[in-house]
Amino acid sequence: MEEIARKKSDMGKIQICIIWCVLFFLLWERAPLSAKERQESWESEEFVLSATFSYQEESEKDENKIVLRANRDFALRLNVTARTREFRGYVNVLMQNEGGNHVLYQHQIEALAAGESISCQMLLPMNLMTAGLYLTLTNEEGEVLLEQTVPIETVNYGMYEMTAVFDQDQGEEMYQHFASFGNQLVEISESEMACGAQAMDALEIIVTDEAALAKLEEKEAIEFTEKESASASLKEWVRGGKTLVVGAGSVEAEEEMLNFGLQEKEVLQELVLHIGNYEATRENVLATNEEIKKQYGKEARACYIGGSMTGGQSVNDLSDRAVSLPVRRVETEKHWWNSDASYEVLWQERGAEILRCYHVGRGNVLVFAVPITVSPAKTYPLFYYRMVEMVLEHLTQIQIDRMNNDMYGYSNYSLYTQLPDIRAGNDGISVFPYILILFGYILVLIPAVFLLLRHFEKTKYLWGVLPLLSFTVMGAVYITGSQTRITQPYCTYIDIMDYTKNRESVYFSLSAPTNEGTEIMLERGANVRLAETRFRAYEVGWIDDYLPQENVTRAREYRAAVCALPEGTKLCLDTIRAFSNTSFYAWGQVQKEEGKLSVKITAKDKIVAGTIKNTTAQDFREVYICSPFFAVRVSEIRAGEEILLEHCRQIVKEDEEDYYGVDFYLLMFDASNERNYIEYNMLNQLYYEYVIENKEETYILALPKEEESGLLGAIVDNPGSNGIQVFVWGVEDEVE
Questions:
Q1: What's 545's DSSP letter?
Q2: pLDDT (mean) for 310-329
Q3: 8 A C-beta contact, residue 195 and residue 317
Q4: Residue 615 pLDDT more than 90?
């Protein structure tokens, strides 16, 4: 009997354990998909304001701080709820940056009825050293209804790639080996991806599974929406120069033993050396960080370094055994990255292509023919470290340059650095009217008044008439010079109408003729930010210089404000000196252009032959057709005109080793002595950004005779404003 009772008791315990496991599983399934997505909420009796931060990292110092990657953009999603009464006003985010360079971002809410909610998204740059965000909800009169300060910690010291996992079925823990070599691993949700490609700027790599992408596309096909989809954002993100890693889904094949190159002695030695060097660097960085904190306190900003890859054991103790995995030997399904048959095989083993690289735009899609997930563990076989190493070895050059920028703090030469050299567009002041007034005053008016008063014997009034006459002449001088004075805000700009991306980008420097600031209205849909956001290097004042030097808890003044209104984007300058320059960068949808410049090339050996046709409604004063192998300069082309390329000035690269960059620069100069160095420097910069970074493509750079207003609107017509506009098209119908 006792034995039966004991068995019943054991069965009861087992049932309780099963129930607890089921409950735990259900709670786990209901947990947020993105472990790195953080939401903060503040409320009053009448209103609720909540903010969601994506891709934020964990702070070692203060769990209340929002940790974001510096020198990258991040998306801040804001939700406003009106509880008991209607709301009309603004939701505001003041980025409290060092040096008083605070920037205010606003979003207008026209009408929100009681009981309703509304959401908006702000794309903000973490380029300056930001101490915090001051979030407020204000009514139309500017009264603050809700306010909250969110402390910010910026992280970017150390060469590491932020890697995101998109796989809702398997989760982040199955991809932990991608955190090797110091990478930051975060989990990304569908809603975060739908925020747009620019909102994923902090990410360098996204790892996923074919099944996860297929399920996402099926869901979006059923739940079609006009908003930007996660799939569209992912494609744009890759085309912009990032790296997507795709693992094979369910592979119906027998498992094979794979070494991923580790059977080759050199490959194995290089991998072990790579891991050993990382571990040694990690120990040195940790020791240096401890010394910094001892000397300068816990708040001193130290260098980032990832976790250990060996778990305390020797590198030589890591397993180099082969791994048994199913291998997909035949490519059957067509995806957006393999619609073109061209690809590069990075690794093959036993006759199977294990890793392919597809070049999509400026980015790479690395596709494995094997599953890339692995059971959670402290250390992994070298096979999986080799998998991660292969991914890191095939990042794009754009990513490598950007991460160097983050680490060392220098700023590459960019178009906005040319803005100070662009001269104001107003004509020079003629001194002739002032000379005429002065000579008339001295040689005519004064003698005439004196003689007239003496004739009437009223010379006693001379000392009263002369001051009155002087004030009259001063008024005449003031009125004469009124048309030469700048009374409106003005700007210098470089405007790029890029029809390859359907995007207009404008670098502009805005100035105001008063100490009271100014405001301008840009076209609807413009995104604006300060361009003067260079990030200082880790080596330049890396310790106490980065400690808070000012109280920014409730900073009210700002250098610039960007307000999203229904009718457009309002840009305000506040705490600036009169005629001082503030540089901005703006982008948005390019204006629709009827027609284009189209090129058909029939030959490009020794001489480029073919035609260029202008099907637009405007004339172009200069056109350049540029590729890695040739450049053609068309002096002028009118609307509807077609020109033979062999009749134009050109340069052809005769040998693969030839470099014609200098020759291309000289080609841009006219035969006359009137050379616009600023304009040609801008074209040279665009040549490198488009042609050199896209080595297999041909582009058209065209300067219009009459510029379009674009995103800047009417401000380009204000006295003092001047700039350069260039149209960019890709050559699609090139024929050998």
A1: G
A2: 86
A3: no
A4: yes
DSSP H helices, 252-362, are 265-296
Q: Please give the Cα distance from 160 to 304 (Å, whole number).
A: 9
Nearest to 303 by CA among 284, 278, 329, 277: 284
397 sits in which H/E element: helix 397-408
Tell me how far apart the alpha carbons of residues 233 and 192 are, in angstroms, rounded to a whole number: 10
Strand blocks (E) in 269-343: 323-326
Amino acid at 152: I
> CA 590 to CA 262: how far, in whole Å?
50
pLDDT digits (tens, 9 = 90+) for 472-514: 888 777 777 666 677 788 888 999 999 988 899 999 988 888 8
Q: How far is CA 281 from CA 43, 182, 255, 286, 287, in A?
A: 46, 10, 37, 9, 10
At 373, give phi and psi (nearest 5°): -90, 160
The tokens for 48 are 């609720």
Q: Which helix (H) or strand (E) holds 724?
A: strand 722-730
Q: Is 672 exposed, middle or buried (0-12, 13-18, 19+ CB in 10 A)?
A: exposed
Q: What are the tens digits of pLDDT across the range 529-579?
A: 877 555 554 444 443 344 444 444 455 677 788 998 888 899 988 877 777
Residue owning tokens 């503030």: 582
Strand partners, 40: 51
Q: In what order do the strands lie in the sheet with 184-187?
A: 184-187, 162-166, 205-209, 243-247, 363-368, 352-360, 344-349
DSSP 260: T
Sheet of strand 630-634: strand arrangement: 527-530, 582-589, 503-511, 490-498, 722-730, 699-704, 620-626, 630-634, 649-652
* CB half-sphere exposure, 104, CA atoms < 13 A: 23
Give the model's pLDDT for residue 17.
44
pLDDT at 649: 87
270 three-state secondary structure? helix
**CB proximity list for 325: less than 8 A, separation 6 or greater:** 255, 256, 258, 370, 371
Residue 671 pairs in a beta bridge with none
Direct distance between the N- and C-terminal alpha carbons of the chain, in angstroms, rounded to an integer: 94
Q: Which two tokens stand for residue 564?
A: 């999203």
Q: Could you give the CA distance from residue 461 to residue 259 in angstroms, rounded to a whole number?
A: 110
What's the whole-number mean pLDDT along residues 614-627?
Answer: 91
Amino acid at position 153, single letter = E
Element (H, E) at 124: strand 117-126
CA 76 – CA 64 distance, rounded (Å): 17
**Which two three-digit tokens encode residue 337?**
């990255």
For the chain, state the CA radius of gyration.
32
Helices (H) and strands (E) in the chain, counts: 12, 33
Residues 153/66, Cβ–Cβ less than 8 Å = yes
pLDDT by residue (tens digit) across 635-682?
899 999 999 999 888 888 776 555 555 566 666 665 444 557 778 788
Closest CA to 256 of 370, 387, 373, 386: 370
What is the average per-residue pLDDT within 178-194?
A: 88
**Does residue 95 contact residue 103 with C-beta atoms inside 8 Å?**
yes
Q: Which residue has the tokens 């005449």?
A: 476
Look up residue 655 and give its two tokens. 């040998």
DSSP three-state, residue 720: coil
Could you give phi then psi for residue 540, rounded to 5 degrees?
Answer: -95, 100
Please name the residue that has the structure tokens 């004509």: 427
- DSSP-derived letter for residue 602 is E
Q: What element of type H or E holds 20?
A: helix 2-29
Q: Which candidate, 500, 565, 498, places its Cα nearest to that of 528?
A: 565
CA distances from 579 to 416, 517, 716 (A): 18, 10, 17
Cα diameter, the chain: 147
Q: If you count them, how many residues does the chain have? A: 736
What is the distance between the alpha carbons of residues 560 and 584, in angstroms, rounded to a whole number? 10
| CA of residue 56 relative to chain centroid, distance | 17
Q: Pairing state of beta strands 103-112 and 560-565?
A: parallel
